[in-house]
Every structure is written in C-alpha cells, then in structure tokens.
Amino acid sequence: MQLKSKKILVILAGLLVTGLLSPGCNRSKPATPPPQAGPPEVSVLTIQPERVTVTTELSGRTSAYLVAEVRPQVSGIIQERRFTEGSNVRAGDVLYQIDSATYQAAYDSARAALSRAEANLIPIRLKEERYRELISINAVSQQDYDETAGDLRQAEADIEVARAALETARINLAYCQVKAPISGRIGKSSVTTGALVTANQTSALATIQQLDSMYVDVTQSSAELLRLQQTLSSGQLKRGGAAQAKVRLLLEDGTPYPREGTLKFSDVTVDPGTGSVTLRSVFPNPEHLLLPGMFVRAIVQEGVNDQAILVPQRGVTRNPAGQAMVMLVNDEEKVEVRVIKTDRAIGDKWLVSDGLSAGDRVILEGTQRARPGTPVKAVPFGPAPEGSAEAVPQSAGAKG
What we know:
Blueprint: H1 2-28, E1 41-46, E2 50-70, E3 76-81, E4 88-89, E5 94-98, H2 101-135, H3 142-174, E6 177-179, E7 184-186, E8 196-197, E9 206-221, H4 222-234, E10 246-250, E11 261-266, E12 276-284, E13 295-312, E14 317-318, E15 324-329, E16 335-339, E17 341-346, E18 349-354, E19 361-365, E20 377-380, H5 394-399
Parallel strand pairs: 1-20
Antiparallel strand pairs: 1-19, 2-9, 2-13, 3-5, 3-8, 4-7, 5-6, 7-9, 9-12, 10-11, 10-13, 11-12, 13-18, 14-15, 15-16, 17-18
Helix pairs in contact: 2-3
C-alpha cells in the first residue's frame, strides 16, 4: 500500500511540473501580427452623356373615330329592320323601313298640284302676250294689261310653290327608308318591327361606330405642360421632328399595342376642375383590337435630350429629408456623398437634371463597405466572372 501511494504522489508531482512549464513555453513563441487589409473594393460606373428620347406616360380612354346615332326623320310604324345587330354596314345601306303609305299619297298629291299649276300658266301667258301687242296700239287699257301681267307672275310663283311642295314630299317619302349615314359597325337596335317612331326623337334607333381608326384621349396636367415648354425653351430638350408626333400605346393588361399612333392636337383650354388639358391621338385599328371605352396608357414623345445624364436606380438612395443621393469616388479615391435631382425614370435608370456631370464615378456595388471620406479601391462595374463569389444580384445591388 505504501508503494502504491508513492506512485500516485510521483504522478501528481509530474503533472504539476508540466502545468507550470507549459505557460512559459507559450510565452517564449513570438505572436504573428495580422496581415494589413487594403481599402475596400467598390464597383463604379463612370457617367457619360447619352442621347435619350424623353417620353411621358399618360392615362386615357379610347373612342371611335366616327360615331353616328341613327334617328328617324319622319314619323311612322317600323315595317322592317334590314340589318344584323353587331354587323358592319356601309353608308347608304337601308337599316329600317317605315310605313310609307301616307308619304306616298302626299307625294302624289304634290305632283298633281304641280301639274295643275303648270296647266294654269299656259292660258295666262298667252293672254299676256296678246295684251302686250294690243297695248302698243291702245286697243286695251293699261290697267287690263297690268292685271294680266300680274296674273302671269302669280301663276309662275304657284308653279315654284308646287315644285317645292313636291320636293318636300319626295324627301319625306325617301326618309321612310332610314339609311346608314356612315360606314362602320352597328350596335343593338332599340326598336323592333311594329314600333312607332317619331321624327327627330331623342332616343336613337341604333348607333354606328367606325373602328378602323380610333381616337385616344389622354389628359396631362397644365403644370407638366408648362414644365415641358420651359425645358424646350431652355434648350435641354429639342423637338424630335416627325418622330415627336408619334405615340405608343399600352393596353389594359400592360401589353404594348403593335401599331404607332399620331398626336393630332392639344386642347387649348385647361379644365378648371382637374387642372389638365386633353391630348388627342389617332391609332390605326384594322384588326379592331381597340374598342371604344377601353382604358389605355399612351407613351407620348416629348423631345430629344442629346446630353442626358442617366444613373442606374440601384445606385440612388434617399436621405432622411427624402432627397435623392448617390455615393461617388472622388479624385482622391475617397467616398463622397452627393445630393442629386432626378427628373424621371427611363427604364431602370433615373434621368438626372442636377448634381452629376460627365466623368463622375458612381458606386453601384459595395456601398455597404464604403463610408463617406474613407479611401476605397474603384473597379469598373460589370458582370462578375463565372463562379466568382463577388457577384452581387441586381436586386441586392439596388438595396446597397
């Protein structure tokens, strides 16, 4: 037992000596200093002026190029409807037939009255010719001749009245056939056979709309119109010639309309209720894809900016005051924060009207590692090599 106890004491003494010697060994090894880190790397885009066509997107609605409400011009009973609802009709096609019996009788009566007036004219004219010869030899009195000449003029006037009455009867008889005033697509009929209609009634029998071309009416605020005029007068924007009058269209579901339209006119009056003016453009519509009353968005070309400054939206942030700002790498290779003024979005970029100039280097990636006033290493912005761990997604870069 004593021998076993001695062995245990020897082991404990050895462990104690080892523990005391170990710190001394560690202190004897010199510490390796950490490697010196270089400035953080950021991706920058060098600003260069671009030629940009400036457009504005406005909301509006479509309307038919021509609209005609069909109304009767004589009263009577509808005997027949001669069109199919929703079909295409041509100008002059008969749409409704109104009972023409009374109008035919009025026409026959007017024609007979004209024949009677013409018959009465013959003896009066012969009498006036005889009296004209006799008055020259004083065979009749001047009074007799004057009365005969007056009767002749009265008979001639009666003929003119009868002719006018005949023409009126003929027109009314023709109005018994209600014809299409324009070519286009006709809608539903508001009356059926046997219905009584009256001349120039307020309710239309049907409506015809010409859809081969369509109007698009959009509204623009008067403030925007003034801003555009000021920009044009200052020379920042230039008229784009014939292209300036072109208009593109986005349908209700956001898809682009395949055909371009033409801007026709701008209204000369500001709506006092909305403070806006109306712009009207015309679009070809041969496939009848556009229908009256559709909500659309028109992209109107305002002009051309030959020296536009564009910056990707991912490189623009907002300060607490709501002002747009970017982070730059200045000539000293240090980070600089600059407040800019953005005019509008063009695609995924902002059009900058103040705060940036050609040659400025805007940080697009690595802003989380950049601090104002600190030195950085600027590298050109571009897609990272395949397999590189430094690639930053588009959305992540925008947040930076």
